[in-house]
Amino acid sequence: QGEVDERSMIFRMNGLEINTKDSSFYANFRFRMQNRMGFYTNGGDDLGISEWDARVRRLRLRADGYVLSPKIGYSIQLSFSRGDQDIDNTGIANIVRDAVVFYHFTNNFYIAFGQNKLPGNRQRVNSSGQLQFADRSIVNSTFTVDRDFGLKAYYNNTIGSVPFRIKGAISTGEGRSVNTTDNGLAYTGRFEILPFGEFKNEGDYSEGDLEREETPKLALAGGYSYNAKTNRTGGQLGKEMYASRDMGTAIFDMIFKLRGWAYETEYMKRTADNPLTFNEDGDVRYIYAGWGNNHQISYLFKNNLETAFRYSVIQPEGKTAWYEKRKEVLEAGVTKYLRKHRIKGQFNLSYNTEDGRWDLKDSDNYWGALFQIELGI
Amino acid sequence: QGEVDERSMIFRMNGLEINTKDSSFYANFRFRMQNRMGFYTNGGDDLGISEWDARVRRLRLRADGYVLSPKIGYSIQLSFSRGDQDIDNTGIANIVRDAVVFYHFTNNFYIAFGQNKLPGNRQRVNSSGQLQFADRSIVNSTFTVDRDFGLKAYYNNTIGSVPFRIKGAISTGEGRSVNTTDNGLAYTGRFEILPFGEFKNEGDYSEGDLEREETPKLALAGGYSYNAKTNRTGGQLGKEMYASRDMGTAIFDMIFKLRGWAYETEYMKRTADNPLTFNEDGDVRYIYAGWGNNHQISYLFKNNLETAFRYSVIQPEGKTAWYEKRKEVLEAGVTKYLRKHRIKGQFNLSYNTEDGRWDLKDSDNYWGALFQIELGI
Amino acid sequence: QGEVDERSMIFRMNGLEINTKDSSFYANFRFRMQNRMGFYTNGGDDLGISEWDARVRRLRLRADGYVLSPKIGYSIQLSFSRGDQDIDNTGIANIVRDAVVFYHFTNNFYIAFGQNKLPGNRQRVNSSGQLQFADRSIVNSTFTVDRDFGLKAYYNNTIGSVPFRIKGAISTGEGRSVNTTDNGLAYTGRFEILPFGEFKNEGDYSEGDLEREETPKLALAGGYSYNAKTNRTGGQLGKEMYASRDMGTAIFDMIFKLRGWAYETEYMKRTADNPLTFNEDGDVRYIYAGWGNNHQISYLFKNNLETAFRYSVIQPEGKTAWYEKRKEVLEAGVTKYLRKHRIKGQFNLSYNTEDGRWDLKDSDNYWGALFQIELGI
User: Fold this and answer.
1) Of B38, B157, C125, C229, which is least packed with CB atoms within 10 Å of its CB?
2) How many angstroms away from the CA of B59 is the closest CA of chain C?
3) Could C82 and A180 be called an inter-chain contact, meaning their C-beta atoms sit closer than 8 Å?
4) ipTM of the modeled complex
5) Contact (CB, 8 A) for A299 and A261
6) What domains lie within chain B, and their CATH numbers?
């Protein structure tokens, strides 16, 4: 079932598969489309519509497989919709999301060379086709380390019956759009432990308990990413700053599943010695220094209808607080899974607040409603 | 044969087909390439070349199919050539043309959610792979409502033996390129009636009588599209205006076929209360308010060589006439169909006039000649 | 084995092949990914890193085949990575690399209509998947005539047992990015002779002697391309100039192979009456008038490890020398071929000099190191 963005899906067969006769080549083709229609209101008590969010949110093609032998894997993912190309920040239509070669030294150790996701926060590493809300949380969008080009290493083993994983990466630190990059790279490490054993079907990287775990399953993880001399406000993402900066991102996350229930949380904190950069006209572009926390809990009914609730908060710190306010979002979601995460319909309702003021009359608050259909193979 | 842009082609099998073993998935892959070389002259009596039009006009990939059951269809179309991405108006390479999910409630009623063509004028809804001239007419390029994201509904039935169709859409009104959109949507309706019965192979949405209808076939249609608060000069198309405007587009079209003969006409009229918008520098961007009319007639010889003639006129009205002149085009076309519309060679010759003056000596008039090869599966 | 960019690969079967039941259609799908990580030093004796070159250099999809009969071939190639789209020069994401229809009149004569490579210098016409260094030489990047849209003709025959080929093209002269073009076209001709007979597997257009020729094989070629009224600094490539210019490019190249040894050289010379163009602010954009020469020699060991050496020089002439200096590059490469050119790892080390000064202490000199993996089918 699972679609894991950190390795090629060569051992779990789905999509359209193609083999050569001599078994020296394997490819698995997939696509995914997410169409949505939703709106935001003018305010908490003014339900007039300020803006529609109606579009093809994602349209992706993906190929996974191996060449010569299953030891040499590859994963390619292309994105064709505007909102999926980082074009509004960079001016470049970044069609290539993943383009990575894997080499499996042993069953426990493999490396990746190319562009794919960094071993960052859990919700980001979850494929966008494995989410229980239409969008990831504001914690992710503010602090995630996303995709980057470089060399990554993945090691997994067990202590007694307890699986653990160690992941590391050295990458350019500038994200998907660059041709060449300065001499500051990014260094990322992450440790995961699953005290009650492996989730069914790699469910620790899939939201909602679609596998209905019969015994409790838990994954705990922590990591850190240091990005030296990045030029972008979000490190691998965001607009170009007026000067380069060093930034650090600490991540703690966990996911728990049992009999249709799932609880997931992540805490992220970003630091930078001097987060602000200015140009000659006095315009500012800055790193969002601060922290965020996301909680989401869900229950899957027998008919594959799921209800989910989410609370997210981001809190600027230091000089970032001159420009940003604390933001909180309360969100409820209903999802009908027709073929697990591949084909589903989702309805989300959110209430968005600023500065810790929850009053409906507060002028900065507003509601959001969103309906999304995902169709993929 | 037909390639219909208003629904997934799940019942007419062509291209490369792929089924899963359990019949829960079907996909039909296609591509289409249109390469052209042509030129425009300096004037009606000065046959020096002012400009070449030599390029890959279209290169598209398309996938149609269903998932879970034939009730849930999908259609995806990607365009890769510059002239096919609306990039020169929007600055965005809009690769996604169609990305839409269909749900078939009954054989007579289905809905579409996503991005595809609106139920607008016939020549636009005809796939660009079903045209008898290399380009659609200036009436279409000036007034068409094109593609949009939203919810569409299609109903068809018969009164006695007379088929009719009702089509409606609620869409963003901003076309393919947008991320989010203001609170003005677009509303489109269309009614079609086929008094002599259905065309062979859905030939009412394919130009030229390639099916050689043995009895007369006629389709009559009328529709209206209202676009509230659009930001673009053509509603779903065109450059961004300096202010938003409401616009209305009325459409009447018909097509008649018999024994290799085909006659097609469409009349479109666009209205806007105040079509002009200005910026602070006094630059103007405007809605083309006015009307247009296109006629084209063709005969297909036994050897699948077709001759076609076209007369098109567009007439600005009101304040639009301050900036635009009446334009008329007379065009002759010869097409050799090697595999119906999939593989064909086309030669078009046009004479283009302004202000109703047809004299070869008139300085604004010019000739155009164009050779185009279409190759698709 | 070979991947030839001047014709559709319908007679050498690789990749994923699809046939229709009635043999009226054939398609061969391929992709290719090149991931690299390398850097440039600050200077010849300062080995600090000035810049990283770490990215998905190429990610391409390709389809070749025929329709109706093998006489009507096609070739389509799409490029998805930023550095492969000419976007930094043109602002347009040129995804379409090749989109061309072939018609084979006889076994000795065929024409092409559409966009593909011009019959220019050998290293350019070599597919980027058939190179023995990670990049082509500076001679190629400075003087190549690259891809263009137009009509091309290819004739081959033998004089006694000596094969020869004549290639010609009329094309727009503006390269891949244009919609319409002015009335100056480009005219290209090339003559090739293979005095010792054909190379194995078309190895005259593949670098390195991967076929281990048992008898000496040699290809000699000369050609000329005249580009009237081009708007771009490199004719079909480069930034837009401030005025159009005529340019001429002369090409001589040869390749020799024997028992794992390969030697390749090319000489190119570009001329323009007035290479400089200025805008109102006095900024200059110019044609690089001058000449260049590239030599590369390689030996393939029994274990499919290849060592290669390259010396390249470009020399500006006339007014171009006001802005450009002589550049020389000395480069060593080691390549491990896992599946000929399809799957290989490459390591290149280069020393780059200016003005003929080779001293490590010279401030303009620097080292480059690059590791690249190519994975394709």
Assistant:
1) B157
2) 8
3) no
4) 0.93
5) yes
6) 16-376 (2.40.160.10)
